Amino acid sequence: MRHQIVLIILTFLFGSAVLGQTSSLTVDPALKEQGVKIVAEQQKFQEYWQSNLNTGFRSQTEYLADGGDGVAKTYIEEDWSVRNLETEDTVAHFDTLDGRTLVEPSNRVFLYAPRFGAVRKIEGVNNNAQITALSQTDGQLVLTVDQGKEQIGYTAQETKSGYARTRTQLSGIGGRKRSTGAGTTQGLGAYSNFESAMYYSNWLRQQAIGLAELASLAEGKARARAWQGAEGIKVQMNILAPMEATSEEGAESFFQIEEDKSKTSKLRLIKVASKKSAQPGEIVEFTLRFDNLGTQMIGNVTILDNLTTRLEFLPGTALSSLKSGFMIQSNDSGSFTLRFEITDPLQPGEFGVVQFQCRVR
Amino acid sequence: MKVFYTITIIAFLSVTVLYAQQPGVRVPGYPGVPATPASGFSVSAIPVPGYYQPVKIRAPEGTRIALSIDQKFVQRQTTPYAVGLLVGSDYRLRITDIPFQPGREIFPTVKIIARTYPPQGLELEYPIQIDITQEDIELALDGKFVTRVIYLENPQTAMPVRGDLGTPISTDVSGAVDPIVAAATMGQPVAIVRMGGRIPNTLGVTDPAFFLGSPSWMLFDKTPAGRYEMTRYQNTPPYPASTIISGKQIVPVR
């Protein structure tokens, strides 16, 4: 047992040695050298942080995201204006043969591109010395303190009890209840007259309830019940008869739109980046492929890419595999919104590709 | 016998807990909030055992930077200085060969308060970048105290400016503003650099507190082939790190 206790203590010391390396034990220099060699061998595990400690965690602040449709879903007005196109959104909208305008978002592309900034603060001792200069505070400080002491009398005047008594009268409460009542004023008198107020104040002062006070209390309780808003509402419920009103508004007919499932309109939009990571200043090429996966022709295919702040569009790099128009417009985040308008309708199974390049800010 | 093993394990775990609670791993004035890697305000540094966060320290051209081990500065590397630092530990730097300031030197401190999560294999390509400008150094030499809080910018609130290598993004705050709080509004604070503080004792007596305990660090040397050679520096242990106890003698592990 003694041996075991000693071993426990030494285990504790061993742990301290490995983790804290703060022990002050003195040992043989030869053993110390041996320990250094062991430490050198442990350095073979230097690359462990590359494999074992990489958690696969994806930090939102380290990645640039572009593509998809954000929280507010993008939609197209009747006048072709685009609504809710947020920063980072990439969508395509198109017209179907049955007159609808549909919106299809792309997938999201993530680019590892952390950017670091710094907040600098400069402090100097000289500034503090100026603030604590005594020359400006000496004279004024004495006068201020003297005036403050003389003004204590004003505080006593403000605590006159007369004001408190006025505020505790119950007539004010009675007045408020009258406004929410249902008509008559009979019950409100007990609360609004001064006697009732005196009753409560008397009970509060003497801490005792006499027979007169009990009678008055019972009367007050009865009136309070009579004037509860809930009772008044019950009467009105009977008169209104809401069941009849709801029956009058019942729907009499339903409309059902039957869609021919053999005629579908579906567009797929895929977005890819040429790199998975980029340093500030590097150029990344984005490619958007759109496929008509439906069974009908679609027209007015328009692709919109609202670039995130740190992607700077490079003019002259936009390409399209199909005949199309191209426009750019500044967006709210300090970058650009790209707009590709495919001129010709897209037949079922047909696809197209557009490309552009951005510099990572 | 089961009780014996239980107590042994508890003893070892208690050492681990005590080690994790050692002072100096939290930013003073910002207790209790765990360091979250995702976006959001958190400034306390929870150490990541064994993880050396790659850091690239850039100073004006020509300057040399050194870190300490065994309470002395061991090497003077040219800028940029690629090292791995433990999260939560304070490090003392020595910056010499300052342009236009011959013979003068400053001793900033660096503290990493959060790690980054790059894709596997890109750890060294995307280190935390710390920029120390000529103005910073000259302010420190002039007696000012300069604090730089490095933050990982939130891409959704990023400034629409180019953040190329030659133009680091930097914002100055006035004396009434806490730079850590200001940095947290723009992203995730990851490191704190303080310049203009203490200088070493010139009487030849080593001051252990000046070196902040000389926590271990790793040097990353990029070879011409593009690979990195890693060397870990740590204090010489007072006795063999891995030993077993036999009777009353300390025997090293063979």
Overview of this protein structure:
- Chain A has 361 residues and is of the alpha+beta class.
- Chain A has helices at 2-19, 29-42, 48-51, 125-131, 138-150, 152-157, 161-167, 171-180, 189-192, 194-206, 211-226, 229-240, 242-248, and strands at residues 63-67, 75-76, 82-83, 90-95, 101-105, 108-112, 116-123, 267-273, 283-292, 299-306, 311-313, 319-320, 324-330, 336-342, 351-360.
- Helices cover 36% and strands 24% of the residues of chain A.
- In chain A, strands 5-4-10-14-13 form a 5-stranded antiparallel sheet, with no helix packed on it. In chain A, strands 8, 9, 11, 12 and 15 form a 5-stranded antiparallel sheet that branches. In chain A, strands 1-6 form a two-stranded antiparallel ribbon.
- The two termini of chain A are 68 Å apart.
- Mean pLDDT of chain B is 76; it is low at 15-43 and 244-251.
- In chain B, the strands form 3 sheets. In chain B, strands 2, 3, 4, 6, 7, 9 and 11 form a 7-stranded antiparallel sheet that branches. In chain B, strands 8-1-5-12-13 form a 5-stranded mixed sheet, with no helix packed on it. A two-stranded antiparallel sheet of chain B has the order 14-15.
- Chain B has one domain (2-237).
- Chain B is an alpha+beta fold and 254 residues long.
- Chains A and B meet through helix 1, helix 2, helix 3, strand 1 and strand 7 of A and helix 1, strand 8, strand 9, strand 10 and helix 3 of B.
- Strand 7 of chain A pairs parallel with strand 10 (169-173) of chain B.
